[in-house]
């Protein structure tokens, strides 16, 4: 069974080469200007929030952005702007078709210090580790957003309001700002228009699917599909263009380096690579969304089997297995690998290492891509300016955090394969 | 450049197997293979292979004292080729020297026990299994020693000609992880199976079964992060640096008011509603009372098993196992989370 040919997704790309605070929000000649006071005022009335301050930061500036929750690429559906990020922000519709304008080289970063406002340890599972984006210094380039022009939204939560309410407002506001920044291009003729199509492929090219692993364990550690947390998900088949067009959004703030911010769903290097090669040396037969951090051996085995079964139903000869976080989730990945291989579906795994260690392994996992060693220390750097708070989530002073492990940098060891880092033996 | 060189009794010219019990010896200048290094060897240190194996602590202490006095810029050990005892001594001495700030180079066969003994602290040049590899090994060892003595940082093992030291260093690849994954997958489909990560796992043989549980002493050990409420000894929620022990005397179970898990890797709410779910103290007390189990070892050993490097976890395991063995424990209920 092939993925039914659907209308193509047309992506118009507008390049951003600078960002600045100004009196109007507009994109002119590659310069994104942001009306900061208007943006800050726009958060009034959002439940659970006291306020939001907005900063612009550029590549090369001596700035550390800390306590980063998510990164979002500015994007808007041009035919129906009200359906952008369907379910999570806009009205429900199926993502992945029609025209989308996106700002290339720009990002919206959300930051908040939940740890000061709440006792997060009362949650069963709560985010661990710090989350940095350095715009210069030894870690510039570890986070993808060292190289983008960023509009940073720093939220202050109302500690009297429920934490989940504040988090929902932060996620909604971040997506709204991303949509509104891209909406500055609505009247502009589309630049660099590219059609993402999945035509039927003749011949016997190998059929490849992606088994995309995410996690959803509760407030602050959830991933959202069309606006709903994925807790309890049974593996589900998606068109890759849905993922690239805002169907998946992040709300998972654990271990910065090994989680997938919304931006990586929107820009997935893996999905774009498979679309690019579709019809050339492979046939891309779909994305199977699956969960990690399942709580018991039975849950893990069940999900692994159902993901593999769905891959077989999609006619896959081979599957790329991505991983979300590490430790516990490595078990979900290798069990899914084993289930696929036993059904004759060949696999490659993307995994982050912890000082040479994998938490779990099966003999069938004979083809693994290393996205790097989480624990390697990055030399100390003292930024001239910090955005996102004066102390980090784990209580370090923001300007004097000392050497930190690579996993501190947002998306640095993305196990969807968006970065170029890898670990090698020394 | 000041070099110290370590050899065994044979290469020091003290004798063969008959002299293997010789204690540490200090000789001026280069001796034996040291003369072939082409370096200014200030001192040659030697010990008998058996002596080192049987009196490791004393041998190391003496060798390290001499090293302290000499203050060389680099230590060279061997080459020991395929020799087990000699290789072990080389690897152990090189490890301790390197940890005290004297860079060390060994030469040995990759399967020598000295490779493990060096624990990645020293650089090991792979050699032939036989002594006929001497001519090939010496210049390669000398070249690395020269650079280490000059304070240079060495490049990756395959380029520099030493064995990987068990480290995994980050580098920036030409292609994204996604592109590499698709390439590897298509190659695998074509029959060319390659990987960037080779998993190495211990194969732990199970001990023989306990013959009679009604007379056995049973211990409770856990990585579940179970600690007295309030976590007085500040056990980490991940990347634990230590294991802890607590007395179980007088306890019939783990009360919610007194115990909790501080583990950061799983949802602790169900566990903390009844900590006996993590470590079954209540059930074991019952089994002891009814006579199914001989007795309970009255100490709980606990840590957090979450993002713990394998080497750290192995060390915790060895240390706890030693305590249990010393206490005459025959069986352990080891609960993981």
Give a description of the structure:
The complex is a heterodimer of chains A (426) and B (337). By secondary structure, chain A is α/β, with parallel strands linked by helices. Chain A has 8 helices and 26 strands. Chain A has one domain. Chain A is 19% helix and 31% strand. In chain A, helix 7 crosses helix 8 (328-342). Chain A is globular, with a radius of gyration of 21 Å. The model of chain A has no long low-confidence stretch (mean pLDDT 94). Chain B has 2 domains: 3-160, Rossmann fold; 213-335, no CATH class. In chain B, the strands form 3 sheets. In chain B, strands 2-3-1-4-5-6 form a 6-stranded mixed beta sheet, with helices on both faces. Chain B has a 4-stranded mixed beta sheet with strand order 10-12-8-13, covered by helices on one side. Chains A and B meet through helix 6, strand 21, strand 22 and strand 26 of A and strand 7 and helix 7 of B. Strand 26 (421-425) of chain A pairs antiparallel with strand 7 of chain B.
Any key phrases for this structure?
heterodimer; A: 426 residues; alpha/beta; six-stranded mixed sheet; four-stranded mixed sheet; 8 helices; B: 337 residues; Rossmann fold; 2 domains; 10 helices; globular
